[in-house]
């Protein structure tokens, strides 16, 4: 088979894939499709009410090493942008004595070359890239995750 023949065959197969997918979706019974939105895709449903953010100020156990800690308090209306970071008004290393908040990890003061900086590294400045508040809500899908300690405790 020549290269041009292979290309023609590949183009035909690639053109047929969307046709097969659309046909399969069209033929599927909408009642049998399980979705998280609990309704037909063509119907506008009322969105579920947003759960309340936990505001317990209790440090949670981490599920695995190096997991970023979750935020144990509300952060509504916190400004975190290029000009300001509300999180650092309590968690900055120079302010933790007054606020009694845990200090930002020393890893947040390192640049990409491993050198320590006097201030939080620009790479770690936007806290919500890794740290998130929690809500009191039931999971949407099942989860059988086991943390490291429970795996170690299991008999062989």
Write the layout of secondary structure elements.
Elements: H1 3-27, H2 88-91, H3 96-99, H4 148-153
Shape: extended
Strand content is: under 5%
What is the tally of helical segments? Answer: 4
**Sheet with most strands:** none
How widely separated are the two ends? 55 Å
What does this protein look like?
The protein is mostly helical and 156 residues long. The chain has four helices and no strands. It starts with a helix and ends with a helix.
Based on the model shown, name its key terms:
156 residues; mainly alpha; 25% helix; extended
Compact overview of the structure:
About 25% of the residues lie in helices and about 0% in strands. It is mainly α and about 160 residues long. The longest helix has 25 residues, at about 5-25.
